Amino acid sequence: MVAVTAAHCLPVTEDVAWLAVEDRTAPGRARRVATGLAERLGFAENRVAEIGIVVTELATNLDRHARHGTLLIRSVRATTDAAVEVVAADRGPGIADLAAAIEDGRSTTGTLGVGLGAVHRLSDSVTAFSQPGGGTIITARFQPAGPTPAELTADDAAGITRPITGEEVCGDAYAVMRAPGHLRLMMCDGSGHGPLAASASREAVRVFCARPAEEPPEQVLAAIHTALRSGRGGAVAVADLDLAEGRVRFAGLGNIAATIVAGDRKQGMISVPGIAGFQARTIRAFDHVLPAGAAVVLHSDGLTEKWHPGQWTALFASTPLVIAAALLRDAGIRNDDAGVLVGKPRP
User: Fold this and answer.
1) What's the CA dihedral at 179, 224, 332, 157 to 10 degrees?
2) According to the model, what pLDDT value does residue 305 have?
3) pTM score, two decimals?
4) 178 pLDDT exceeds 90?
5) Model confidence at 105: pLDDT above 70
6) Which domains does the chain have, with CATH numbers?
7) What is the DSSP string of 46-67?
């Protein structure tokens, strides 16, 4: 991926492992995956050990106190540096006093809390969201040693992908481009599943990141459509968030769901029928108002569109990564590749 016209298309995430926490052996497996990733990324020995402690604590909590616990362990890469990121999600029972649990790791009957003090102390950044009865999301990030590139600390957009059961790679992919006054999002759902679908989505990411930052979304989408003609093709959407004008210019081809969330209000954005790389009778963009503090959500059809922001309490006040994780957990109910991308510009 290349930087263009005072813009950059970083960081790049790689979903290394999705681990279901189903028994007492899960914490050990999770620790080995996380420390192995940190070692490959060149983390210092003591930092690798700390990452192992945090992941073990998170997985142990999920095993002992939660229902349907899952861990995502992945790398987040900038130009030359990489961080390790961990997302822990469950479906309940939730944490009644989240601030206390994170601060000192207290736990009482029916709550998740043991070890969360260690998670807070050893991670470079931690964000948590919990809804009693609905479950908990905890994200932890570990930065490389030395000065941290700005791309690795940006918190205005984040996404998650998860492959269909039985596949190692996900056919969905996303990318984020940042330029002065603009935040640009792209989601691609490669047709089908497996390596060929993933190849189509990677090509969409490559083209998106190579286009000039000032190019309108409909022209970026047209370029992706042309590039995908030699492969599987897929559904693609591009959203340009103009922060100064408070506007989203959106162009979509196929069934990528696109939504603006402001408070408890959910406004859909319009995609035209077609398949990028195969069929596109028309490619056009639509303008939508972007209220202050709103979030923009793009997701593939691996998530149902029936979710509503009112089903959570204050979820959309959290970080884009927590929002994406909660949406995937609660709306990703189909046995399909699933991808969700959330953009939430900082005030």
Assistant:
1) 0
2) 95
3) 0.93
4) yes
5) no
6) 12-150 (3.30.565.10), 155-343 (3.60.40.10)
7) HHHHHHHHHHHHHHHHHHHH-S
